[in-house]
């Protein structure tokens, strides 16, 4: 069918050429994840450009959509409806982003509309009507001196300046000014007239990176995109990128799909941070999105961090990316001295209680030495709060609420001089008369000590030193270069002018003991991120068994060795990234039905299902296939979701491919 029709007077007439529009309709149903054809009228002909927003009548309702393309004929043998209207002639969906969104949706068994919601911000008509500024002049190519400490660092910048495609995994040195290095790499690309995109985990990293890039490329040549911007400002900046007014784009997770013109470089910093994982369908990860983008566009790719993930190591081992790592001689000159409990490298007198004490003498000595040099001390604590986890003081059974069986915790503080009683972290009820159901004891003890309790204990130990906390309630960006105790939770560590004199990493068992596939990798990443804030001559004390692999990697400052060990172990056990894996969550009946309907490749394997909750109302099944069958797994899961959507199954399931958590 041509899509053109004979019309009577008063009826709309199809456009004389390319009268059929392929529309991505914004409908969140898996079985409708395809384009639909509509007619373009002569009145809409000029405004209905590929990439614009439109409104169409779909299943009796007016819904929004995007015009993907215009063609002469429709593939559907039926009469077509006209577009209801063109919302705006602004082409907000570029062909490159449309192709990338389709690839991301296919990889994660999602729909195109799910990905486009992440890629394109809501329209702000008044902002859209205003012109974007003219592009800033091209900056000068920066010096490569900062990269000269890495054997292949200068080669990387040379390739970026020459417009050659380069893919690298960069291991930053301790105390490295990583925002400056990333700014140099991005500005090297922008100086050639191409675009660069850099994605970091949070707004504090974004602020540091923006300052470094603005210093090299100029403030008008850089734009930041993040979720904390208001709707108008966010759309204004996004439009400036889409219209080609800005070439250097910085942002957090959502910026990975930004419509940068003539993209020459994509960068992700600290790719192991869980903030890079999108919490909305189809749950893509920034690292994988940028790898896909580099593959589709030919843009260079740089993955950087103090630690290294198994996924990044796989890119190196496969030969797809090359590593940029400093020589051991250079590393030894700048790395802090790291000691673990049981390591007597700094101890003049043996401390037999060091393994059981939360703050052994070695940690106090490191702190006192830092204060003597007028430097601050950073203390990393795994949990926030006062005492976030309690247990019976006699039998050590977890202390739980009598009403809802939730975990009990101590809030800290007093009421008229009396310590506040324990409370339930689920229902909030107080528990002033705890009695252990296992042994009858009324005594409570802390299983995990939080940041507030740690700050209180250290304040008593160092009464003349100010104590500051950085965590969920208040995250500090930086602290001055004077004696102070800074207690922070992982990811909330502020920078210190000149670096910290000492870094104390407490309660390592709480991080390493988590029932999680990535527990050791994530623990080492958090430790190295904090330890990298120490001065080159600073001291790092980690309260953990020195025989453990992540502790050894920290002591030697060798994340590459640990990433290789981790990848080898996962390959042997058949876990990601050595295989492609998916989790399917739902009720027992929904999981059973889904597994019956799932058409896996012959190499596929189903593990479980296993209960996700104590009441047995939620279960999880793991599905894994060899990496070569990853596309088949995605297609099988997409078909499953489409089938369930078409027959309107009442019990939903949640599917995640390559999830951060599988256990």
Describe the structure.
The longest helix is centred in the C-terminal third of the chain and has 17 residues, at 630-646. The protein starts with 19 loop residues before the first strand and ends in a 6-residue tail after the last strand. The model is unreliable at 1-9 and 343-357 (pLDDT under 50). Helices cover 29% and strands 23% of the residues. The protein is built from 18 helices and 31 strands. The strands form eight sheets. The protein has a seven-stranded parallel sheet, with helices on both faces. It has a six-stranded parallel sheet with strand order 13-27-26-14-24-22, sandwiched between helices. With 663 residues, it is an alpha/beta fold. The chain folds into four domains: 1-91, no CATH class; 145-329, Rossmann fold (3-Layer(aba) Sandwich); 336-385 and 450-556, 3-Layer(aba) Sandwich (Rossmann fold), CATH 3.40.50; 574-657, Alpha-Beta Plaits. The radius of gyration is 28 Å and the shape is globular. It holds the Pfam family PriA_3primeBD. Component of the replication restart primosome.
